[in-house]
């Protein structure tokens, strides 16, 4: 018998698929339903693919192949998220050209993807660093600019001193750079922003229209957008004439408990308030110190609340009382109005602050079950209750009071109801070379001038210096100096490039029309495929990437370029790959190289193990014996076909008549149903594999003398069911079984509904309490019918010969006991 040699079979079929252009996306086949299966595209690092990638692609490929067999026209593309800092760092550290470095990594990853047997349409490959692609990214930037969604603003930005670049809020983790772990500082710079906050409400509301997204991911997005309903309340500052300071609060019900006002140190009013005061200089140096603290180190729950009294006073809008105005680190300038009303009795942060600086604490909410408010507070009370010390609102439930106090403020002209978001506009400027240049020039006479669309792309220059200090683009004279598109005079080119998250916010649209040289994509082509039906990728992208992609989709929809309002109908977060219980990582030395596994066992074994070993959303613990087990299973499949080679030559018709063949037939059809539903409805690929394994056990236990036609059918269908999991092996076996076509072009098997129900039961026949015989009866038969059938059997008649039957006891589905003498 020929042995199973994946090392030969796999490259052979990869070449044939490639020569046949087997996974080319169907075009203009409007009679078939579409399915867009997508996996997050990889970053082309020099290391090639890791097991997380393999897991992601194995699942995506399974879905794509399954849907093709189910009759869908499928778009299943791949590309590379190819801009970004590692290429530039390689240039700085090793003097390599970032473009060449990236392109060769892309090539390497493509080859590895081919070795995995993934059914991508390679004609639609998209690399975000190619001029064809970034030209389109620039086009989209200009679209945003035209629509007032791209703007330049001087802002206090997160700056990584090590990477020498600005970071988006999302890229600051625990106050540190997400890439290099350096402590992030604040810096004032002119930057480009995209106005994602204009879409905050829609980004929030439309989450409700995504039933196939995990609830957990929607919650993460909701929290990120962070919508807060509340009120703005104006406090006048008598010493500045008519001037006011406006605070944002979600708790107007606590208004009578305000004992001070706190401004963010960056608040524009601060200068006026401290001007001429004795401690003016001290406040200023305090402000300088706070400004350099990161957002997290200012607002963390366990961070020390630091502040200073400005010496100025504000007037309470309802009581007229004078209260001090402070500045403090825990108030942020870019949230709400940058000013807070301090209610130490009922707000945790205010409570800590008031304790530190000995500010008065005024209780205004009393728990429902208490008689009278305690005067001396040990701890803050943040719960619900009844208003006290609140003038006309005393006795009111605090939830009711939220609206009532706000209404009162509105009536008196001291406030308005507002909504605030945690979401900030998206800072896209990067002082980096290896990114998409922002297509803008600066002219002394015309100001900010967008590069006309026909002049795109603004190409990355080659004459740059990578010294690891400043933005390399500023070192290219030929790039920086340009002519103004508007007046023809001398101008300077923008040297910021875009955050790579811009590139990945629309790549799924490019796949629908990857070779378009005029527009990013054609509306009709995009509408044919969008939305993506199934998107798989790491949960680490659940906030940033998915939110930005949703934002871009909505902008393009509004611009009339796209019907879809959401990019991904279903998002499936991929579980992590572990080894011996901990994350695979170089530092732990527990990395299993996918290519080593392929060399040793073949891609099919790797794919099967990955799909079988854990539910897709769960963590996958890589273990060598599990891999061996999957390999053994594929060997069994291989042998099963080899041993029955002869049968495939004459291929008898199935005649499932006697017991064994009926049973195998039922097992086969049950398996088809289970595998179909596990993939289609539940995405439980692991249980689908174990169902197929049980079927194979059934086939191996099938008696030699039972109907051969049923056996042939079961083996063939097993091979078809396995095709999306192990594409090479099944293709090879399909050929060995005598077929000229590809197994991947077979229609997915239908199950025979009537075969699923159990028609017959085996029951035990006892005579005087002793088991004497086994008999098969119809499952539908009632007691009398069972008795009639059993008593009519030859064998039973023999056993009863010479005896008189006294009584027959029937237990349906189990036994018949005959009492006889
Ligand atoms: C008075 C008050 C009393 C507050 C109380 C809370 C509880 P969320 O829910 O996150 O939107 N706040 C407003 N602007 C701020 C800023 N720029 N920096 C820091 N804190 C700020 O939080 C809204 C609450 O956070 C607001 O309601 C305000 O404190 C504070 F018992 O006002 B509150
Ligand atoms: Zn000009």
Automatic annotation (TrEMBL):
<feature type="domain" description="Methionyl/Valyl/Leucyl/Isoleucyl-tRNA synthetase anticodon-binding">
    <location>
        <begin position="662"/>
        <end position="784"/>
    </location>
</feature>
<feature type="domain" description="Methionyl/Leucyl tRNA synthetase">
    <location>
        <begin position="41"/>
        <end position="182"/>
    </location>
</feature>
<dbReference type="InterPro" id="IPR015413">
    <property type="entry name" value="Methionyl/Leucyl_tRNA_Synth"/>
</dbReference>
<dbReference type="GO" id="GO:0002161">
    <property type="term" value="F:aminoacyl-tRNA deacylase activity"/>
</dbReference>
<dbReference type="Pfam" id="PF00133">
    <property type="entry name" value="tRNA-synt_1"/>
</dbReference>
<dbReference type="GO" id="GO:0005524">
    <property type="term" value="F:ATP binding"/>
</dbReference>
<protein>
    <recommendedName>
        <fullName>Leucine--tRNA ligase</fullName>
        <ecNumber>6.1.1.4</ecNumber>
    </recommendedName>
</protein>
<dbReference type="InterPro" id="IPR002302">
    <property type="entry name" value="Leu-tRNA-ligase"/>
</dbReference>
<keyword id="KW-0030">Aminoacyl-tRNA synthetase</keyword>
<dbReference type="Pfam" id="PF13603">
    <property type="entry name" value="tRNA-synt_1_2"/>
</dbReference>
<dbReference type="InterPro" id="IPR014729">
    <property type="entry name" value="Rossmann-like_a/b/a_fold"/>
</dbReference>
<dbReference type="GO" id="GO:0005829">
    <property type="term" value="C:cytosol"/>
</dbReference>
<feature type="domain" description="Aminoacyl-tRNA synthetase class Ia">
    <location>
        <begin position="423"/>
        <end position="620"/>
    </location>
</feature>
<dbReference type="InterPro" id="IPR013155">
    <property type="entry name" value="M/V/L/I-tRNA-synth_anticd-bd"/>
</dbReference>
<keyword id="KW-0963">Cytoplasm</keyword>
<feature type="domain" description="Leucyl-tRNA synthetase editing">
    <location>
        <begin position="222"/>
        <end position="409"/>
    </location>
</feature>
<dbReference type="InterPro" id="IPR009080">
    <property type="entry name" value="tRNAsynth_Ia_anticodon-bd"/>
</dbReference>
<keyword id="KW-0067">ATP-binding</keyword>
<feature type="binding site">
    <location>
        <position position="586"/>
    </location>
    <ligand>
        <name>ATP</name>
    </ligand>
</feature>
<keyword id="KW-0547">Nucleotide-binding</keyword>
<comment type="similarity">
    <text>Belongs to the class-I aminoacyl-tRNA synthetase family.</text>
</comment>
<dbReference type="Pfam" id="PF09334">
    <property type="entry name" value="tRNA-synt_1g"/>
</dbReference>
<dbReference type="GO" id="GO:0004823">
    <property type="term" value="F:leucine-tRNA ligase activity"/>
</dbReference>
<keyword id="KW-0436">Ligase</keyword>
<dbReference type="GO" id="GO:0006429">
    <property type="term" value="P:leucyl-tRNA aminoacylation"/>
</dbReference>
<dbReference type="InterPro" id="IPR009008">
    <property type="entry name" value="Val/Leu/Ile-tRNA-synth_edit"/>
</dbReference>
<keyword id="KW-0648">Protein biosynthesis</keyword>
<dbReference type="Pfam" id="PF08264">
    <property type="entry name" value="Anticodon_1"/>
</dbReference>
<dbReference type="InterPro" id="IPR001412">
    <property type="entry name" value="aa-tRNA-synth_I_CS"/>
</dbReference>
<dbReference type="InterPro" id="IPR025709">
    <property type="entry name" value="Leu_tRNA-synth_edit"/>
</dbReference>
<feature type="short sequence motif" description="'KMSKS' region">
    <location>
        <begin position="583"/>
        <end position="587"/>
    </location>
</feature>
<dbReference type="InterPro" id="IPR002300">
    <property type="entry name" value="aa-tRNA-synth_Ia"/>
</dbReference>
